[in-house]
């Protein structure tokens, strides 16, 4: 009984966090869980927002929206509930950061028109992850919402996402960035006049082939960003602190499939080692078929051949249910995390707002007592 009470408290505490981050491997229902938690929080009168960094944008369909962008889109909920949804646009977010934090409008326009910036803002490795963190910082800083729910990409990309603030701080502290502040000094790094001539010749050739005045564009790009580097470092540190704050919770989303459980166990180890607070696990698509003796099966209710097939199918489902219980038990033993919810395999896909609300009842208390009871039966 105490264990169930602890789980109920853990579920309730989720809705009172400031930031919830849903992580897990692909195809386990992270988007559905993130959306349903946000819906539940909004229905509990918490001003909430759910943001996705998944380019597939399944969140739009789940919430019944016609569009999804960096601008908050209100989700139509009853009872005065307030929920917004939004998706990351790396290029647009990058541009917004430049406009917001450049020392002047002139500097911002110079950066935005720079050809190197235009290329880098679309293709720079890690820029998507860092811009995601910039958007998260913006939303948290303005405190427009009481709860932010983040739907992350699959686990491999989520690792890059969570490491982005620290990685940026390390990059900005390197000598390479200091050297780029004076790009002409690149020509002075060679120890011989022959080397300098060779490097200058190479740069000229690159300029002819690419159509870029390389040193000039590099100089303009870096000189514009130089005034913003301290701000990038400060915000990166603030986001890193936010992700590890007591008001933040990570939720591991999985299915009972052995491969998915093994991935989540490894992901939990990485999160724990890097200091991220993990609240618990939501297991999706769990089978919970009890022993046949607990069911009323009357003789003659079905034709004998059909009855045999039904019994054989049920036996298979019971076997799979035992496997699900076993793998979830192994997950608990390996992580010590509470099972926040075991959402059963549903006949109705949560692709509408009404279906999503019914899904949310398995995760958040108070929305539907019948669904909450079904969670206990599934566990």
Broad CATH class: Alpha Beta
Task: Tell me about the largest β-sheet.
Answer: 8 strands, mixed
What is the helix/strand order?
Answer: HEHEHEEHHHHEHHHHHEHEHEHH
Strand tally is 8
Estimate percent helicity.
55-70%
Q: So, the CATH homologous superfamily?
A: P-loop containing nucleotide triphosphate hydrolases
Tell me, briefly, the overall form: elongated
The chain-level structural class is alpha/beta
Name the poorly predicted regions: 182-191, 369-379
Across the major sheet, the strand order is 3-4-2-5-1-6-7-8
Distance between the termini: 13 Å
Strand percent estimate: 5-15%
| CATH fold-type name | Rossmann fold
Explain this structure:
There is one protein chain. By secondary structure, the chain is of the alpha/beta class. It has one domain: P-loop containing nucleotide triphosphate hydrolases (Rossmann fold, 3-Layer(aba) Sandwich), CATH 3.40.50.300. The protein is 56% helix and 12% strand. The protein has 16 helices and eight strands. The chain has an eight-stranded mixed β-sheet, with helices on both faces. Strand 6, helix 13 and strand 7 (278-286) form a beta-alpha-beta unit. The radius of gyration is 26 Å and the shape is elongated.
What is the gist of this entry?
The chain has helices at 2-14, 30-43, 58-62, 90-101, 105-113, 115-123, 127-142, 155-172, 175-180, 193-210, 214-226, 229-243, 258-273, 304-335, 353-360, 369-378; strands at 19-23, 48-52, 73-74, 83-87, 147-151, 248-254, 278-286, 339-344. The chain has 379 residues and is of the alpha/beta class. The protein has a single domain, classed as P-loop containing nucleotide triphosphate hydrolases (Rossmann fold).
